[in-house]
Amino acid sequence: MKVVIVSSEVSPFAKTGGLADVTGTLSHVLKNMGCEVMVFLPFYREVWQKGIEAEKLDVDVAVPIDRRTLTVGIYRSMTLGGVPVYLLKRDEYYDRTYLYATPEGDYFDNLERFTLFSRAVVESLMALKEIPDVIHCNDWQTGLIPAYIQSLYAPHFKETATVFTIHNIAYQGLFPATLFDITGLPQDMYNMEGVEFWGKINLLKAGIVYADVVTTVSEKYSKEIQTPEYGYGLEGVLKKRKDRLFGVLNGVDYSQWNPATDRYITANYNEKDLSGKALCKEDLIREFSLDIDPSVPLIGIISRFAEQKGFDILSEAMDELMKLRLAIVILGTGEKRYQTLLSELASRYRGRLSVKIAFNEALAHKMEAGCDFLLMPSRYEPCGLNQIYSLRYGTIPIVRATGGLDDTIRDYSEKDGNGFKFKEYSSKALVEKVKEALKVYRNKKRWQTLQKRAMREDFSWQRSARTYLSIYKFAMNAKRGEISSTEMHKK
Ligand code: ADP
Fold it and tell me: Hey, how many other C-beta atoms are within 10 angstroms of the C-beta on 192?
């Protein structure tokens, strides 16, 4: 099976969040399962700044955009696992400090940037004479591809199915209707059944409407987004496509996230011998300049600073939390209002609450290893990766029961459970759950049993990748008009 994965982030080339980890690892696992895989990504500044080598191919593509035709260069790089990554180069759009937005807000020309990328992917496939079985698109940045495959490029890709994965429905790629010509799509696709959404262009909706199959990153989230509370206005559109909508949980790349081999952490450890974890904790206490005894329970948060992640209930809960015997370390970047809020709290509780505003992969690993708990009080969470990583590190997740957090974490009981989970989105529920978790922490025997249970959990990619393979086959059948979605849903 020939699969093309298109994404605006791919690890280790360019990353702002979980999407990069997912597309980076999935491409390898699919290759190991026998697929022929190609990956497409914009040639961002981040890629060459990392010193990643790429060779320029002889073919350039001419991409019509608005009333112009822009030339896009195709560069090929290779991942360590031997998957070819095609980097599409057009410097005035991609050679920038950030991928999508500065701290002040989105780049003003994101519609042009990602229309160009999406259309250049399709043009590149034609120029390279590639007719894939499946094009797997991810998030709004690639939402136009299924629309192109069904319209302007339909004659070339009669046998190519498209799969569109929603990693976060709150980010939809909304743009003024007056810019529709930039997309080059036929005018009749701008309507309620197409890419129009309350008077605007909606690129995520384009992906949902025109892909042969739509997926999202956990079973629970696939249900939640069909409701007004979580659907961000697209619940009706998704409901209409529910026969073609599947939830596939993200997996973990344990070659990157494993305390036994992790090269970022002070001391390696495993389920049989956790002594290294204590050294990691001491290291982390120093790194965050905490003024605590190592026996004090340490809670970590690694997160984008965005409304979704629950910083409102967290800051509301902070005074109560700080009355308890615990310390908190936070690593994140994102919206200014949360940076300010958290920095203020950190100066109020200096020595017990420490915040680092940075994107720092090494420190993220050190926190997974050195903390006792990892807190994710998200309002919603499509899948969430940190809670799954933390299990392997014996760092017990405390999460709100939503989306992938609900699907991966089972609330603690003596016989079962791999973490702590609260239902209601409130500071009170959060504080209560933390208190419950601390009680278990104080009981050495129970705590160690819980840690070991967590470390034994297995969320490796094999299972998820197998599900993607069956979804690809289903999409190919759907494209050819041989559908049996009930069968697929039963599987
Ligand atoms: P999301 O994709 O919504 O940001 P996920 O939990 O799915 O959340 O994935 C987050 C990924 O990004 C994890 O790999 C996490 O370690 C990483 N990450 C998030 N913030 C930071 C940061 N400030 N520094 C380093 N890594 C981070």
Answer: 10
The whole-number pLDDT of residue 58 equals 96
Taking the domains of the chain in order of start, what are their residue ranges?
2-251+462-490, 275-455
Q: Residue 238: in which H helix or E strand, if any? A: helix 235-240
Predicted local distance difference test score (pLDDT) of residue 288 = 98
Strand-pair category, 68-78 with 55-65:
antiparallel
Domains 2-251+462-490 and 275-455 fall in the same CATH topology: yes
- Predicted pLDDT of residue 337: 92
353 within 8 A of 362, measured Cβ to Cβ = no
Please write down the long-range contacts of 287-296, taking CB distance under 8 Å and 24 or more positions apart.
287/363, 287/366, 288/329, 288/354, 288/356, 289/351, 289/354, 290/327, 290/329, 290/351, 290/352, 290/354, 291/350, 291/351, 291/352, 292/327, 292/351, 292/352, 296/325, 296/326, 296/327
Structural tokens at position 239: 């409901």
364 close to ligand 1 (CB < 6 Angstrom): yes
Ligand 1 pocket mutation, candidates 304, 307, 361, 365, criterion most atoms within 8 A of CB: 304
> What SS3 state is found at 228?
helix
Topology adopted by domain 275-455:
Rossmann fold (3.40.50)
Q: What is the pTM of this model?
A: 0.94
Closest CA to 64 of 120, 132, 110, 105: 120
> How high is the pLDDT of residue 74?
98
> How far is the C-alpha of 70 from the C-alpha of 73, rounded, in Å?
10
For residue 309, the one-letter residue type is K
Task: For ligand 1, say whether the CB of 361 is within 6 Å of any of its atoms.
Answer: yes
Q: Which of 386, 399, 400, 409 gets mutated to test ligand 1 (max ligand atoms within 8 A of its CB)?
A: 386
Among 19, 99, 302, say which to mutate for ligand 1: greatest number of ligand atoms within 8 Å of CB.
302
pLDDT averaged per 10 residues, the chain (length 491): 98 93 96 97 96 96 95 96 97 97 90 98 98 98 98 97 98 98 97 97 98 98 98 98 97 94 98 97 98 98 95 97 98 93 97 96 97 98 97 98 98 95 98 98 97 96 95 96 63 57
Q: Which fold has domain 2-251+462-490?
A: Rossmann fold (3.40.50)
Token digits of residue 121: 């992917």
- d(CA 251, CA 56) in angstroms, rounded, equals 33
Of all atoms in ligand 1, which is nearest to the CA of residue 356? 23
